[in-house]
Amino acid sequence: MRLACVTIPNFRIALERTRARATGAAHERVSATTLIGRPVAIGEPPPGANEIIDCSPEAAALRIRPGMPLRDARTLVPDLILLPPDPVYYGRAFDSMLDALEDTQPQIEPGDLGTVFTTLAIDPLLCVTFSPEQSNTKTPSLQSPVSSLQPEHAAVARLLDAVRQSAGVEASAGAAEGKFVAWIAATISVPGEVTVVPAGREADFLAPLSTAFLPVSYDTHRKLANYALPTIGDVARLPIGALQSQFRGEGRRLYELARGIDSTPFLPRTRVEPIAGTIQMPAPTVNSNALLIGARQLVGRLLQRPDMHYRQVRQLRLRLVLLDGGSWEHTLTFRDPLGDEEGITFVLKKLIEPLQLAGPVEEMMLEFIGLTEETGKQRSLLFAEQARRRAQLFAALRQLKAHFGDESPQVSRIVEVEPWSRIPERRYALIDYDL
Questions:
Q1: In terms of CB atoms within 10 Å, which of 146, 218, 410, 416 comes out highest?
Q2: Model pLDDT, residue 225
Q3: Which pLDDT band holds residue 191 (cuts at 50, 70, 90)?
Q4: pTM higher than 0.70
Q5: Do 38 and 20 meet the contact criterion of CB atoms below 8 Å apart?
Q6: Confidence at 136, pLDDT banded by 50, 70, 90
Q7: Which residues contact 302 (CB under 8 A, 6 or more apart)?
Q8: What Å distances lie between residue 314 and 8, 274, 297, 366, CA to CA?
Q9: What angle do CA 155, 160, 164 make, to 5 degrees?
Q10: Residue-wise over 105-142: b if at least 16 C-beta within 10 A, else e?
Q11: What pLDDT, in 10s, does the model give residues 214-254?
């Protein structure tokens, strides 16, 4: 299957630089001009993972790598510009990129952050041809300008335009048979350009490339280096028996990938509009009780939406916007679908209570992203009286809202937030009693 791969190298760094140019500053201590041409990395400080998440090409040239501890990175490059992660911003930008690409090509599959695969319904005979002389170079020169009149180039060029308009970042793209070759074609392309690998010439295209492109384990990469197999072409010349005896289960995959054979299926995403809500915290806080109160309010509001009638939640995403400009997010998948406020809040409580953040929270967002049909579940008879009283309370509240309107809530409740605070106003909070 002919596939196109669109990728934005160093996706997080590219977004931070774009935001810096637009706003004049990427962070309160970093100016926009500081990020251009300088070694920049995004790292999660304690109490988080305490490691590098992404880095710029300038930092990579100085041996900074994702997964490196922050202390080692600062020791290696003392003038390294370290930015806090903002996963909410990255996720929104990636979702916008997916929507823009889906408007151009109806079937897309999200890959890693900043990478998308899509089908190409174009006759391969109309594609650019691959000259055998190019297989002798270290990096195959298959790149063509975006303005090329070749059908595949023109189709993929429309994808690059969609990314440029949605994310404001230049992407690179590749087209080939299968995900693996298409991804490599996009990876070696210059941002804003397209690399097309004609059908049947995948092995010639891959032969001069480094084995670092192969998606195999660290031990396999170490063995390839020890066996003096620096290029994919060196691996392709080995028989399958030798590869399986040395690399066990990964031997067959090495044999196929080195020849450009990738049987990984294309799985187009199903576009589902999430049910989402946002709440602004009365004051930035790191108190788990205050966060739990906000989460409970969001759950109650979302469950009362008409879209949630006769539906349950299989998966949700919690996003927290921090005061210093960073953010935090986590996706939860339930073992059994849940459709009641108490059950969903109980799971969120287990997530929020041990949470340690890099700064106070000023905004909370909750999304129901996995919805299922309602399922029957036997409830204990011990809760019958409690459920009856709760139904009576809700009926009275609905009557009050119908009489006085939603703009001026008539019923509120007092919740304990920071009972140890010396400021009386912070000990308790008065919140609306949402239905």
A1: 146
A2: 87
A3: confident
A4: no
A5: no
A6: very low
A7: 275, 276, 277, 308, 366, 368
A8: 31, 12, 19, 14
A9: 150
A10: beebbbeebbbbbbbbebebeebbebeeeebeeeebeb
A11: 888 878 888 888 889 999 999 999 999 888 888 888 889 89
CA distance 47 to 50: 7
Residue type at position 6: V
User: Look-up: residue for tokens 């400021």?
Assistant: 423
* Residue count (the chain): 435
Compute the CA torsion angle 262, 267, 268, 273 (nearest 10 deg): -140
d(CA 55, CA 38): 11
Q: Average per-residue pLDDT in the chain?
A: 80
Q: Mean pLDDT lowest for which of 4-8, 88-92, 368-372? A: 368-372
**DSSP code string of 246-285:** HHTTHHHHHHHHHTT---PPP-PPP----EEEEEEEEEEE
**Which residues are bridge partners to 372 per DSSP?**
312
Sign of the C-alpha dihedral, residues 125, 128, 132, 136? negative
Q: What is the DSSP letter of 45?
A: -
Q: Single out the residue of 224, 166, 174 nearest to residue 9, CA to CA.
A: 174
Average pLDDT of the residues in 178-189: 92
3-state secondary structure of 428: strand
Regarding beta strands 172-177 and 194-196, do their DSSP bridges make them parallel or antiparallel, or are they unpaired?
Answer: parallel
For residue 387, give both structure tokens: 């459920």
